[in-house]
Design a protein that fits this description.
Elements: E1 3-4, E2 8-13, E3 19-23, H1 34-37, H2 42-46, H3 48-58, E4 67-75, E5 78-87, E6 90-97, H4 106-115, H5 122-137, E7 141-146, E8 151-154, E9 171-173, E10 181-185, H6 201-210, E11 214-222, E12 225-234, H7 242-261
Antiparallel strand pairs: 1-10, 2-3, 2-6, 3-10, 4-5, 5-6, 7-8, 7-12, 9-11, 11-12
Helix pairs in contact: 4-7, 5-7
């Protein structure tokens, strides 16, 4: 079975709201052992108030491709940022330790960044956007690639390096060398959608060769169709807050929609 990174707790919940799969770091929530958590009601693990909030948030899921987030959520004495998706009555939940407080106005940040883009040429818009995203998330290299994995724009001048593979789901590596956390319980196809899956041995080797310690890859869609990917790379371990990540993602998706309206040839 796959493993996850230590910064995030993974849970797969069945239609009966019992735990089917859990990562071995569930002890971050209290005196829990993964073997005894599997099969238990989730409410017994996170509490009745937290389960009520989580149920309400999961009700927003509209399709197998959609996901929901919640930020600064308290499960017991731990502050977490939550990401969840579902399929056929089951839910994948990733709860990562919060690294920053709630942003004062995330939506306002997206609007402000969008308003700062000027001109009508798609490549110019993309270049401006990558520099804004670099300031927002702090990764050393930020770039957008088309579906052919070709670099459209980067925050770095004369960036001739290869881009990243097309991201069909969010994928985050906070520290390529972090100790991996095993999963306990049932196999589930939902696990493949986890953003904080631990990198494979081949991925670790390749990132080390390139001098990359942390990465971020996000799919960019227009009307549900995958048209591009946003990638970020850093030479040292790095993880940004989930709300800041969502601001970056929303801004990038607004960017590709604007590029398409300006005649972006890679969008069809």
């Amino acid at each position: 079975m796959a493993a996850v990174q230590p910064c995030a707790l993974l849970l797969v919940i069945g239609p009966d709201w019992h735990v089917g799969t859990v990562s071995a770091n569930v002890g971050m929530l209290g005196d829990f052992r993964p073997a005894t958590v599997v099969g238990q009601p989730l409410a017994d693990i996170i509490g009745s108030k937290a389960i009520h909030t989580l149920r309400n948030r999961l009700a927003w899921l509209s399709s197998d491709e959609s996901e929901v987030q919640d930020y600064g959520v308290e499960w017991g004495d731990v502050m977490l940022d939550i990401r969840a998706t579902g399929d056929d009555g089951r839910y994948l939940i990733e709860a990562e330790l919060a690294v920053e407080a709630r942003l004062p106005d995330g939506i306002g940040m997206v609007r402000s960044m969008s308003d700062r883009l000027s001109g009508n040429q798609p490549a110019d818009l993309a270049g401006q956007a990558m520099r804004l995203l670099h300031s927002l998330i702090g990764f050393e290299r930020v770039l957008i690639c088309n579906e052919r994995d070709e670099v459209i724009a980067s925050n770095l001048k004369s960036d001739t390096k290869a881009g990243g593979e097309t991201a069909r789901t969010a994928r985050l590596i906070a520290d390529r060398d972090a100790e991996q956390v095993p999963l306990v319980g049932e196999e589930s196809s939902l696990i493949a959608k986890a953003a904080y899956l631990a990198p494979t041995g081949e991925e670790v080797e390749r990132l080390a060769e390139w001098g990359i310690a942390s990465t971020m890859s996000l799919p960019l869609r227009i009307d549900g169709d995958l048209v591009a990917s946003l990638h970020a790379y850093n030479s040292t371990p790095k993880r940004i807050g989930a709300e800041r990540l969502s601001v970056a993602h929303l801004f990038a998706e607004r960017l590709v929609a604007r590029m398409a309206r300006r005649g972006w040839d890679d969008y069809s």
